[in-house]
Amino acid sequence: MRSDAEVFVGTWEAVVPGKEGEMWGTSTWTIDHTLNVQIAYPEEGGRFTSWELTLDPDKCPKEFKLSGFNGIYEIDGDRIRVASSSGDRPTNFESKDGVTVYVLRRIEPKK
Q1: Which of 24, 38, 64, 76 is the most exposed place for a label (fewest CB within 10 A)?
Q2: pTM for the complete prediction?
């Protein structure tokens, strides 16, 4: 069985449900084996940012830190659902003021 860190490695389409096609609604996350993340924003002409990802799969719900953001995640096959906040760590996957929920779907990297 693969570790959570191994599952995260790859290229993902990140969608904020209900905001597809809007600014920040869809992005592409590329995660390498050291858990460095590059996020590309197609709505912004391909601008990208770089982040460091830390996972804590032993917590319930599972927790992550993406540079200055705190979050939780759950893995379901080739999809990962995350909820993140720049403040307190979310305790559930409810999208609300200050908490963004993304669904990551594994995709083939662009050549």
Answers
A1: 76
A2: 0.86
